[in-house]
Design goal:
Strand 14 and strand 15 form a beta hairpin. The protein is about 10% helix and about 35% strand. A six-stranded mixed beta sheet has the order 10-9-12-17-14-15, with helices on one face. By secondary structure, it is mainly β. The longest helix is centred in the N-terminal third of the chain and has 13 residues.
């Protein structure tokens, strides 16, 4: 790899102990005051060719993916969002932004707000309090699958420094793309028998992929001829142009609907430095796993043969072939032209190499100086992830409850103490100790509910996510779980059924990473801990779009009585809307 890379690793690792001094230095520096950044967006369906085949996508201001929001920590972002979809509502979730004091701006339909109706404008106003790599996406129906997403990058505040050095940066938002439209996908998921959405046709990098052809003739997969792509084609890859012997930051986020992915750069090692907007102890890796809802920053040094270009490859993980071919782009060493690399694609682990995935997950620990978790939990919730049947329809459930959302947003009904707006029965906190996670459920029946976990303010909550066998024998799926309104500490992963006696002592309380999304591996468990310090109503759900659509999520309500200044238009629908009308006319 060359001595420059090893020098680079040393520089990165040395910097890892300097987080606090960098931040102190930054605090002392004369910083300009935070800005308020205004955006005016219109969301509409439009024709586009994400993978060289024309289709309909949900775009923003005529762009796909939507515009990238660039801001600095401490800024306030104001998005005036107008719905130009003719026949459906709309919301946008700002993934990874914790929404302190603005839970109504979280962008979750029926949870934090009413949907924005056609021709209506809703104003999202929120503070981006922490530097990091984030993104935004639709959170109503399956609008994320329709292409409603974009990047949100928060740089450190003026006068502050990152705890690592780089000469330039790139940003890649990963997604997967189907040729079947989203409404057909939704109908299939709600049919008896279920019509599964199938594998995506393409993996997209910044909204660009190549279906049935490739930059390199798919290296023997698929089409035998090179794509004759014009550089200005909507599906032409965005080439990453680099100078030799520099260090670059690559920001990567995944808004996929289904796919777990692995990214590798030909001939280049990477050093992982950020996960979900939190610094991690720098660790050198050959490739990175990235699940839906996660984001990372890696550093790489351009210390390879400068007369060549190199592949950046994104391949699917954890699902049985046939799957879409890798998404590709080119790392273009200047002054070369962006010619197609002659080398083979970089090595990624086999699709079913879960050992490699677990090894990668366990390498990620917090950077020295980041907050450590409280030593004890006040409350512990076990969540059994199962696939079930309800009246013959296939659903996903947590502790045998499949989530359905009410017509009145929880934030409004809880704030105004409205009766009957959702199921008042508390959801179960655990599951039967004799449940066998290795076989399909003995009783596959479940029930639907809109019940809520009410959590005391400032308490420490542990969630034990327990994976199981699905309805079919010998099938246990990967589920990436995303928590709104918080970061959490990932205390540990393990195999089989979680046991406090056996596994409790193995949990990492010393330097667990802070995340907002975490995976549970097949037939495994994951333990997370968070502090309920953010009044509001927050979703916690599987980030696989069809799984959420099929009920795989729960709702946490936290000290809603403390929430102030909810804009009327955020919650003026359902029972809250009727209450407002009554008060207005009364």
């Amino acid at each position: 790899m060359g001595s420059s890379f090893h020098h680079f690793i040393l520089v990165i690792l040395c910097s890892s102990c300097l987080l606090s001094s960098y931040l102190l230095l930054g605090a002392a520096a004369a910083a300009s005051s935070p800005k308020t950044r205004h955006f005016r967006w219109e969301v509409a369906n439009m024709f586009w060719s994400p993978d060289c085949l024309e289709n309909v996508v949900m775009g923003i201001n005529g762009q796909f993916p939507g515009p990238t929001i660039k801001s600095k920590a401490g800024d306030t972002v104001v998005v005036h969002l107008t719905n130009k979809l003719h026949t459906e509502g709309l919301v946008i979730h700002w993934h990874g932004i914790r929404q302190f004091d603005t839970p109504w701006a979280d962008g979750t339909a029926s949870i934090s707000q009413c949907v924005i109706n056609p021709e209506e404008t809703f104003v999202y106003r929120f503070k981006v309090d922490k530097a990091g790599t984030y993104f935004y996406h639709g959170h109503y129906g399956m609008q994320r699958s329709a292409g409603l997403y974009g990047s949100l990058v928060v740089d450190v505040a003026d006068g502050e420094k990152e705890p690592f050095h780089y000469d330039g940066e790139f940003n890649i938002l990963l997604s997967d793309w189907w040729h079947k439209n989203v409404h057909e996908q939704e109908v299939g998921l709600s049919s008896k028998p279920l019509r599964w959405i199938g594998e995506p046709q393409s993996i997209l990098l910044n909204g660009r992929g190549q279906y049935n052809c490739s930059l390199a003739a798919r290296l023997g997969n698929g089409s035998s001829s090179l794509c004759s792509l014009r550089a200005d084609a909507q599906c032409a890859p965005q080439v990453l142009r680099v100078k030799p012997n520099k260090t670059y930051r690559l920001r990567i986020a995944s808004t996929t609907s289904l796919s777990s992915l692995n990214l590798a750069i030909g001939n280049h090692k990477m050093v992982l430095v950020e996960a979900d907007g939190n610094y991690v102890k720098p660790v050198a890796v050959d490739n990175i796993d990235i699940y839906s809802g996660e984001s990372y920053s890696v550093l790489f040094t351009t210390d390879q043969n400068p007369s060549k270009n190199y592949w950046i490859s994104v391949s699917q993980r954890g699902r049985k072939p046939p799957v879409p071919p890798p998404g590709l782009t080119i790392l273009n060493y200047l002054p070369n032209s962006p010619f197609v690399p002659t080398s083979a694609l970089p090595h990624s682990p086999a699709w079913d190499d879960i050992t490699a995935s677990k090894s990668f997950a366990n390498k990620i620990v917090a950077l020295l100086g980041l907050p450590t978790p409280p030593i004890r939990h006040d409350r512990r919730i076990f969540m059994l992830n199962t696939q079930n049947r309800i009246d013959g329809f296939i659903k996903w459930s947590i502790n045998n409850i499949s989530l359905v959302l009410p017509s009145t947003p929880y934030l409004g009904s809880l704030k105004h103490k409205l009766k009957g707006a959702f199921d008042n029965k508390n959801p179960p906190e655990t599951f039967s100790s004799n449940y066998d996670i290795r076989i399909p459920p003995v009783n596959p029946n479940a029930t639907q509910s809109s019940g809520v976990y009410k959590i005391e303010f400032n308490t420490t909550v542990d969630v034990i996510l327990q994976n199981t066998n699905a309805l079919a024998a010998n099938v246990s799926e990967i589920h990436p779980w995303h928590l709104h309104g918080h970061d959490f500490w990932v205390l540990g992963y393990g195999e089989g059924k979680y046991s406090e006696e056996i596994h409790g002592k193995q949990l990492n309380l010393k330097n667990p990473p802070l995340r907002n999304t975490v995976v549970i591996f097949p037939y495994g468990w994951t333990v997370i801990r968070f502090v309920a310090d953010n009044p509001g109503v927050w979703a916690f759900h599987c980030h696989i779009e069809p799984h959420l659509h099929m009920g795989m999520g729960v709702i946490f309500a936290e000290a809603v009585d403390r929430v102030k200044n909810i804009p009327d238009e955020a919650i003026a629908c359902g029972q809250t809307g009727k209450m407002f009308m009554h008060n207005h006319h009364g």
